[in-house]
Amino acid sequence: MDKRVFCKRFAIWTAIIVAAVIATLGLLFGKVVEPTLAQEIAKWVVMGIFIIGIFEVFAYVLAPFFYHVIYDKKR
Questions:
Q1: pTM
Q2: Buried b / exposed e along 27-62 (16+ C-beta atoms within 10 A)
């Protein structure tokens, strides 16, 4: 597998997993504090995008390391 492809897949799967965790936490433990449901959903979407962005920075930094650990040793 190419390093670029691995890094892209790593970033995509990081975003998917973080989004699923945020959605699960929001459904199980979220409280409605905004006046309307639309505002509450918008708040969770914006917060989710911000948190996913933070995790994507970590994924961008760690993906080459994981590629090296998994694939470069085999060569």
A1: 0.82
A2: eeeeeeeeeeeeebeeebeeebeeebeebbeebeee
